[in-house]
Design a protein that fits this description.
Elements: E1 12-19, E2 25-32, E3 37-44, E4 50-58, E5 70-72, E6 75-83, E7 90-95, E8 100-103, E9 111-118, E10 123-128, E11 137-142, E12 148-150, E13 157-162, E14 168-175, E15 178-186, E16 191-196, E17 209-215, E18 222-228, E19 239-244, H1 264-271, E20 275-279, H2 289-293, H3 301-315, E21 320-330, H4 332-343, E22 350-354, H5 365-372, H6 379-385, E23 397-401
Parallel strand pairs: 19-20, 19-21, 21-22, 22-23
Antiparallel strand pairs: 1-2, 2-3, 3-4, 5-6, 6-7, 7-8, 9-10, 10-11, 11-12, 13-14, 14-15, 15-16, 17-18, 18-20
Length: 414
Amino acid sequence: TIYLKTTNPVNRYFTNIAWSPDNQTIYMFELNRDQNDCELISYDATTGEKRETLYHETHSKYVEPLHPIQFLPWDNNKFIFQSERDGFNHLYIYDLTKKTYTQLTKGNWVVMGVLGFNTKDKSILIQSNEASPIQKNTYSVNTKNGKRTPLDNGKGWHTATPSTSGAYILDNYSEPDVPRVIAITNAKNQSKSLFVADNPWKDYQVPEYSCGTIKAADGVTDLYYRMVKPVNFDTSKKYPTIIYVYGGPHAHNVDARWNYCSRGWETYMAQKGYLLFILDNRGSENRGREFEQATFRQLGQIEMQDQMKGVEFLKSLPYVDANKMGVHGWSFGGFMTISLMTNYPDVFKVGVAGGPVIDWKWYEVMYGERYMDTPQDNPEGYEKTSLLNKAKDLKGKLQIITGYNDDTVVPQHC
């Protein structure tokens, strides 16, 4: 057993470990406890000795390395890394010979994943939302000039799996009105469909699924929503409405999949006569660093402001019954459910909160402190976001669900 001779491991995170192609070097991203100072450090795998700090990134709020480095299969002296340093998650190429890096992709969109490499034309296969904030599409990226070549139809939400050489891609996708297609695509974006799914609900009474945008509480930012109208919808009627919410980082609810990613539960409730509304507020994923970090040190506050813009929009619709409005969510969505129920007690008549965070000081430290800092450093933020102080403001009917198998939102919260 060889131990890496790291700096003092107290109050430090070690993450996203990678090996050099010859297995002689280990690369690791290291963060301070505040998670606002990040270093990429290399170690000798045979001795454990530190070799050098290759890359250093800081930010006033937080830095969030989520991916290990990946060496170019055709050049053992170059690797790619991902960073939000320019405000959006993009690819950078690091040259170990020159000890310098260059930005490969750029724009107000997010690289959502690196699939692999096309070793013949020396390109990187990625997925991004360049085409639309609610889409996920596949591209090859030229490693010399950053030029991107589309590898799908430019619509919908694609989950791609490359062949070993990267010359072919298994493309599994759906669109708002396309349940599922599995196709084979080559590097020239020539595609052959293997399987096309029938609409699995074609013989059922299903609602109307729609998608649109409203402005966030800042009056500038576009937020995407999904609406599911009751079956046999009648514009002259008023319908009870349920807002489903998650709202936290690294998740979203609305995208360009089949029925705009609506779930069977929403269809069931629409069959029961409810209207469903789902909005991705600021703080959720795939919209860039500023969009996500708007909630820093005050989880739930900006998110509630945006969700209430959704409520304003709903109240403007003649078919929404503003006197019968409920809210439901799980985990961060459970926290949001109770936040909305207690901060706007006259708006929401009923809420169902699954596994809700009640006070962030009880949540696990890596996640909690990334977005909230410590209770000692941010007492005002913890006080403002704690739901213990809000319990007295509850008016409507609230159901809380918890499970002993939840290892992050522990029963102490409930």
